[in-house]
Every structure is written in C-alpha cells, then in structure tokens.
C-alpha cells in the first residue's frame, strides 16, 4: 500500500491550524504542524493557512525565517496551498495594516501584485457588507486546474475576509461580493495554489478540494 504523503502546515501564529490539520489528515495526508524553517524548507508539500492581517503575518514569517523556507520548498517543486490569509501572502505585497506613509508589507512574491481591500459597493453604487462572511459560489476561470478537478462550477465554499487578491494570469476561480474577485489562484504551470475561502470549513466541497491537493502531493514525491 502506498504511504501517505507528508504535508507540512506552517505555524506562523496566525493560522487556523487544528481544523486544517484535521482536514488534511482526513484527505489522506500525514501532517506535520511546525514553525521550524528547516522543516518547512525540506517539506514535500506545504500548506499555509491563516486568519489575521497581512502585515502582522508577513512580519512574523520573516522573523521566523519562514519566508525563505517556503520559497525554498516551492522552488524545489513542493506542492503548495495557501488558505485565506495564506493566499494573500503568496503575493508581492498587501495593504492590510500597512503603516501610514511607509512601504507596503512584503509577501512571499510567488505571484505578482498587491492584495487590496474588498469593494464596498457594486458597479451601481449599492453597498455591500465588509467583511464578507458566509457561503458563496465559486466559478472556475481561465485554464482548468487540477486543484478544482472535483469541484463543480458554482459550488459553495465558506468565506471570511475583508481583502482580496488582484486579478491576473494566476486566477483560476472567481466569486462575487459587490464585484468579482479572485477566490482561487495557481502559479501557471506549477502545483502552487491559493484559495480565498476556507476548505477546512466548507463541508464536502472543501473535503474534495483537500483530497485533490493531497493527490497532487502524492504524485510529486
């Protein structure tokens, strides 16, 4: 019988770690939760969860040596999944809790662009509540992605966020809250993914997505 793929969940003191750990284990992974940069750098697959603010999280990751560690793992070919704040940190920079008049906090730089605030009105000026909290439908966009292979178009996932990633070539799915925003991304041609929603809180749909990621981790070994 094939052994379980090893998946490292990055502990940077901002993550919803237990729920993510349980979700990955249920999907068939052997999970290690760690803040150790060396363990992250040599991981066969990496998950970066997160609940919190971009600036604080980026500073903590830099302090713990995790920014370079995650980049090293990705450069070595490890499949990667960023969840919510973890997806935001995949980008070059983020506006959330940025110092007034100072440089924007820097992310992992896996995808170009800056994470900004969600729109509070639609194109006709109607107001929408921010943060966006609750279930919303997800629609595939652009080239098909293996992460979404078992997710029917329009499937519902659970969201809770006030900021959103910029649109671009990495966008593989969108949702709408006031206006369309990217809710899933992939570095083109690489097993490097991010999702704005929380698969670990999204019932059967989230479980299917995590199984797809664990399958990718198995194939990458």
UniProtKB/TrEMBL annotation:
Its main location: cytoplasm. CDD domains: GATase1_IGP_Synthase. It catalyses: 5-[(5-phospho-1-deoxy-D-ribulos-1-ylimino)methylamino]-1-(5-phospho-beta-D-ribosyl)imidazole-4-carboxamide + L-glutamine = D-erythro-1-(imidazol-4-yl)glycerol 3-phosphate + 5-amino-1-(5-phospho-beta-D-ribosyl)imidazole-4-carboxamide + L-glutamate + H(+); L-glutamine + H2O = L-glutamate + NH4(+). Pathway: Amino-acid biosynthesis; L-histidine biosynthesis; L-histidine from 5-phospho-alpha-D-ribose 1-diphosphate: step 5/9. The keyword Ion transport does not apply. InterPro entries: GATASE, Imidazole-glycPsynth_HisH. Keywords: Amino-acid biosynthesis, Cytoplasm, Glutamine amidotransferase, Histidine biosynthesis, Hydrolase, Lyase. Residues 8-213 form the Glutamine amidotransferase domain. Pfam families: GATase. Heterodimer of HisH and HisF. This is Imidazole glycerol phosphate synthase subunit HisH. The gene is hisH.
